[in-house]
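Hey,
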Amino acid sequence: MTNAFVTLVTNADYAMGAIALARSIRRTGTGADIVILHTGGVERPSLAPLEALGCRLVKVEHLPLSDAFNERHQRKNLHGAAPFTKGSKPDFHTPLDNFCKLRLWQLAEYETCVFIDADALVLKPIDRLFSYPEFSAAPNVYESLSDFHRLNSGVFVAKPSADTFDGMLTALDQPDAFWRRTDQTFLESFFPDWHGLPIFMNMLQYVWFAMPDLWNWESIGVLHYQYEKPWEKDHPKAERLRPLIDLWQAFYDDRPIPALSSLPRPGETP
């Protein structure tokens, strides 16, 4: 059996993200597959560059969840009950799409999968993650040390299994279930004894300005652009995050990638 890096594409914007992500993974020289789970919200032309990069495309449907569950987790209802206060999500963010990540557990042809959100880059070889146990994820650290008790589902290690997937569906759609941060809150509940990955395996972009002492370019395995996306035009934090956005653009445009040691440090002028 083989291993795979897996991401989820639900619209043309995330297809752009997946192109940069796939290029960054290919650059590490990994022998693992790259699997793109994609929903009906993506037109074929948006997926063509991913095919050209040798990615395996797997079309998935939304999970078979109750109407009441879907209503509670619609964008307007979810964001109304649990608004984002630290940053802004783009208009294309659709919370129900997030649960499609769980389709990863149906990829039974793989022994181990490392899921990476499409709004991320891999900056150095990370194949050692395939030796980590299920369920491994990095803490949701981007503001203070108190964040260490929560996981971030932008990067995680999983073992595909039909039994696990069935158990997830049962646990997910309980009467009145409300998953405040969708798949992230659910996975934290389903795997209460989750194993911690180093924060450098899912370095959240807000660390750049909120916890700069943690930032070390040479240590970062995965850079995750949480909240505002690097392809958004003139988002509110764009200038504060300019070196990170420029790096993403270089991967997306397939331009030469600068040495990490040459990149600005937090607080430095590029």
